[in-house]
Amino acid sequence: VSHQRLLSLLDQITGRMYEAQSLTLSKQSIDSAYSYERDYLLHEELLLEVSENRIQFFHQSLFDYVYAKRFVERGDDLLATIKAKHQGLFIRALVKSVLTFMREDSRDNYLHAVRCILFEKDAKGKYVYRYHLKMLVLSMMGYSVNLQPTEIAFVRDEIAVNEKYRDLFVKSIRSAEWFSAIQQIIDHSPGWSSMEERDCLLM
Predict the structure, then answer these.
(1) Where are the beta strands (DSSP E) in 27-150?
(2) C-alpha–C-alpha distance, residues 108 and 36, integer Å
(3) Predicted structure pTM score
(4) What is the pLDDT of residues 31-67, one digit of tens each?
């Protein structure tokens, strides 16, 4: 099986599922030129037949991972994609899956995207990205583990000085690493009250 042809097929399947906002896809919508690769994925049970004419990934998490991985590998621009689409709730799954993959692939690119979603304004001074996307980003950050110094510095220098984002982020923390890091930031930042573990949503 050609690796490149498999990637092309996966691009086609995930792209059409995303556009249709559906986790299943008609077998007839896949180009017949990829029938061998399709049958290979079915045989390996990466794809499953859920009815006579429809297929899906064996788990939604695989769809999310494959879509995000291929999105980043193709060099697609997450920020431009968000701007080009209606920023309704449906786009949250795309943002979450791509940012999750970006964080593992390139922490610098991940932080750039996060910074833009939170802070970017247009020429009229209006925020470019909708509030629910900002809340999603802050919530995702609160779950993060294996923190790098650049992430802690970003929160210290850019989140901690913004009262609205700071409070949202603190309430979203479910990572012991972030609880420890944010406590140190508070201890060295005048104007912050002390924080106790109950102030976070640690599980």
Answers:
(1) 47-49, 54-57
(2) 39
(3) 0.80
(4) 888 899 999 999 999 999 988 789 999 988 888 888 8
